[in-house]
Queue: 3 jobs
Job 1
Amino acid sequence: MTTFPNYRVAAVQASPVMLDLDATVDKTCRLVDEAAAGGAKLIAFPEAFIPGYPWWIWMGDTNYGMKYYIDLYKNAVEIPGLAVQKLSAAARRNGVYFCVSVTEKDGGSLYLTQLWFDPDGNLIGKHRKLKATNAEKTIWGDGDGSMMPVFETELGNLGGLQCWEHMLPLNIAAMASMNEQVHVASWPIGLPYDGHLFGVEPCVTASRYYAMSNQVFCLVSSQIWTQEQCDRICETEEQKQFMQPGHGFARIIGPNGKDIGNSLEHDEEGIIYADIDLEQLIPGKFLIDSAGHYSTPGFLSLSFDRTEHKPIKHIGSGAQKVIGYDSIQYDQDVLVK
């Protein structure tokens, strides 16, 4: 970049309308309007925000969870589709970038996907979680390197990962190789148990380490757990006690690992704002550029395959009948059926 802009960013801490696509999309658009009215030019949303994180996978067996999987499937985001049109319109009317994590239905399968919108309302790309975590594998398929973008924009180089992707060193190295500058870290809640690997402290620590290791501003967005979500999917007393209301941890972290901007209580819906100056990244890059002068390519290196990997390739005259998409760049015209 030849310029290093100053601008306001926002990280959302909120609950979805559990397993309700239309209501959660509408809520997302209202939050975009609110954050933009607060001066934000880039807005980050929590993991699996649309239409909610599938918490039943941690609460019981398949017999209990299947009806909720069916509801999730019916309320997943499709591209193109009305949900994407509404999100696109929110970006366009506010003139902002935003990144929202959704359950995406592509073909017959579901994927955990960050969708990126630009100020003109274009869906400029998406990132699918490369590997679902533990029980999440019963819900979401895998992404690949073709859907691990960093976008070169007037606001800097923008990218994102979801949840425990921030724990994997090779993910961190791959993102560093694209000179990311502002990062969206999408998380669900932190489980309310001291010492739990899915607790608030490990999630915040991973985000803080990411900000420092890659020298980026990190927009940490998280959900909160609510009684409404509990009422929707919890059937037994044990399930109702699994989580208590709250346990959000949204924040904005500078490249020095320090929190910047305002703060929220763990059970409070709201928006974290911070004013960032990309020129502040330069001293950090002087000290550490893990994909550049601070790397050791002579004996430690990463092969980053950014080609699309599909299990079935259509060849021949019928191929044009297959509905597809460009995994990096989306034209606004394809968003409207």
Job 2
Amino acid sequence: MWGWFIVVFAGIWILQIIMTKIQLKNYQATLKKMSSRSSGYLGVGIQKQKLGIGMIAILVTDENGVLVESQRMKGVTVFSRFETYTEYNGLHIKEMKEELNQDTDSQAFMMAINKIEAQMSKKTNLAV
């Protein structure tokens, strides 16, 4: 009895490791594709919960801070994949911040926006 339990447990554990590697490759491929633009800024934000649905948001803006592309991965399993999210496309990140309400999704988007703003201010400080 215990032998089968250990075999099943080990099998599930190995399957989880394999699926996590597949999800990581999906994340890396999405990030590489979105960062291939010749100019602009990229920000990644995460929203984690101990129990419940987590989310990763990847935002790409042009040089002026206007959102040109965004993707999000939302879910609780290793089967979650990135999907295009166009709700805020065309908005400046300041306008986007105003439109974000304080639901669970906004945390990941706000983190990504803050990273983009940090890059923009760093570039502005270098130019001065």
Job 3
Amino acid sequence: MAETLRLWIDRLATPIGELIVVADDDGKLRAVDWTEHEGRMKGLLDRFCGKARYTLTPARDPHGVTSAMRRYFKGNIAVLHDLPVATNGTAFQTSIWRALRRIEDGTTISYADLATRIGKPRAVRAAGLANGQNPVSIVVPCHRVIGSNGSLTGYGGGLGRKQWLLAHEGVRL
């Protein structure tokens, strides 16, 4: 029988709502999402960690990840670069998530650009789906992906938050 993964959960008040951060014993982020989407977050954890194969234990600032997220919301955008993440998606999903982390601060790319960056320019829709399955939002900056025409499109936390995050990072829309 597989060992149960112990995860630590904390909550952080931000200017755009309460944020949930989940880290493992090694200090790697496993999930970041908004409180009203906690069910979706747990669904992603079930999919990527295995249903009933992890525990969520409340903790204050596990491994400093909550403090790092607080610094991000206070304007230190670069703090995201140093946060380790652990995601268990498919090979395609993890390639998309790695590409998201390489989007420069203060910039955006289109879904077509994202697909091209992983060497699969025809997989635009699949790239969008993988982007939407990202369990570590903000840190794996799925909000930096916009429509080819420059429009704001889908963000699990809502378009208002996406717009705020992009403005916070210096993106001019």
